[in-house]
Amino acid sequence: MSPQHNEQPTAAERGQVSTAAAELYEAFFVPALFGQFAEPVLDFAGVGPGARVLDVGCGTGVLARAARRRVGRDVDVIAVDPNDGMRAVARRCDATVDWQAGTAEALPFEDRAFDHVISQFAAMFFVDRTRAVAEMARVAVDGGTVTLVTWAGLDRTPGYAAMVDLIAAELGDDAADALRAPFVLGDLDDVVALLEPAGSRLRLHEVTGTARFPSIADWVHTDVRGWTLSELVDDDGEAALLARAERDLVRFVTADGHVAFPAPAIVAAVTIAG
User: Fold this and answer.
1) pTM for the full model?
2) Which of 53, 118, 135, 267 could form a disulfide with 67 if both were Cys (CB 3.0 to 4.6 A apart)?
């Protein structure tokens, strides 16, 4: 698959989920995985009080909510996502952010409208990544920043590498591919090639994240019902997967019974030339 284009993506490869899955995503995935990255990403992008921020592919809005707290109540924070369920949950979490329907490839905003345009863990699901990054650059002011955040590859994320192998063995390649989808931009060179044409002074950073779940059962249920697998696995499939996971993934269980494993992220930003 090209790092620039997502050929004929499935719903899973586009990160599309139901409202029920979005609610579980917010309740479990955000504290287990996504929430820890918002503040470091805003720091890296240079977001400060008074900055106008656009969150592209916002999901349930963890980054946009953090930006709202940082920039102040009287400044525009806008977040776009094509998924109705994600936006519905986001809106319930914080009504002060302007949550809008939209795709990264056709952002519904005027040129030079935002100081910082950020996409956290969404670029992997864009249909046309080159066009999406060009759109992000178009709506950023001269001297502003465009920032992409992607997961490092599965070779750097041992828990999910093991989970993908387990799902492939138990549920088949389609389900395994759905869990691979978030990691398809895990190569640093691919991220650089995607973002470099958009601006100048390319900066790169790795955030050392940790995935944490209360138990293997919670990990399996969150993965199966909270994101890309939500429409692919039935209750019997989840039960079978859990039985194998509790046997084969015990190495990721800590002394206190929780699950923890490295989940690093690549953060890359460019400055829009004036």
Assistant:
1) 0.91
2) 53
